[in-house]
Structure of Putative ca2+-dependent phospholipid-binding protein synaptotagmin:
Amino acid sequence: NTLETVVPAVLGLTAAAILAVTACFCARRIRRQNKKTNHEISSLPFQPPRPPRAVRSPSGQPPQYLKKSPSPTGIKPPPGTVLHNAQSPTESAAKPVVKYSEENEIIPPPSSKLIANEPKSPDIDTQSEQIGLGDENDYGRLGSIVFKLRFLSDRNALVVSVVRCRGLPGRNQTSSSTATDISALPAGPLSSSNGSNTKQNATDPYVKLQLLPDKQHKVKTRVVRNTRNPVYDEDFTFYGLTLNELASMSLHFVVLSFDRYSRDDVIGEVVCPLNGIDLQQIENQQVALSREIQPRNLKIRAQGRGELLISLCWQPAASRLTVVLLKARNLPRMDVTGLADPYVKIYLLYNGQRIAKKKTHVKKRTLSPVFNESFAFDIPTTEGSGATLEGVSLELMLLDWDRVTKNEVIGRLELGGPRSNGSALNHWKEVCNSPRRQIADWHKLRE
């Protein structure tokens, strides 16, 4: 009886233990699977997008989101810059006082030169001025610029106020800055029937200003849209200057047309030597001045385009033409400092089509650059005939480099083409008839 009672009890306990172990094992397995699944989900590469973060400007401006195509609209000068709220011409005549902000003004040491109100890029004024044609005396010219000068003797500072421009040419006349011709501009009043008084014929002008001969301090006004008579009324202060130093300096104004998609077009320039102004008159009082805007290409016409020394060598066995640009001389003065930044582009033409291009390094601030650079061109050959220079020509362009505006073409030269003549034609024939010889010659550049 005792055995019959103990056996069922043992079997029951054993079954209960087996069930408990099985349940515990299943529970642990389920927990492991859940942990593995959660870990895989958290490590997926496709995370939900994060909200965009504002990019803080290093100049301390309020944060703004990056744009795909930024424009110069609304760009403000950096903090700590002295801003002068310029008055209108009528107001400044009655009260010619330059206002200063004592909180934000920067007082430089006497030995330093500092410019106030220098924006990093043209600030577009969205409030376009009503388009006008200016005075009748401006017709047939590139217009004029009005500015004011004042020297603050207690601060050793020169204040230049760019007031306005008048009678600027339309957009269709400034599309090619290197080909501006005064004779091609209208010589009489323009009517709205030909589109001269429409927004399509207006321009987006702004003015760059620098002190010469240093060329170290450059400032610019904002851009005023759709007008040929922009009003700026902007003041720029140059610190650390004395009257004796100003006597050897000049103001260089460059009037440009802003282009969002390419380099800005140069309308013209004005150079105002300060030694021609009574500096005692501008001491602690404002004096208004006006100057005619002059085109740049007139300097090339008056001085000529210079000469280029080139060496050529034709190697028929390798079907290769070697061009060595040695140097140039008698280049025109492309800068108001009397210098230029020349470089040369070389195009290889085959049957009138450009098939290769090379260019030299830029030689800074010189009218007699020495290049000494060699370029090798592989000449295409036809099956069944030897290598020849038939159908081959060279086109050379000497340009003046500019960091901001379009690089201006000083002169051109063609060797071997249908327009090749004079010394260029003789040089090319000699190279063709004397293979494997380096032959050098001087050539005058043409328009």
Remarks:
- The first strand starts at residue 115 and ends at 116.
- Residues 43-113, 118-139, 175-197 have pLDDT under 50 and may be disordered.
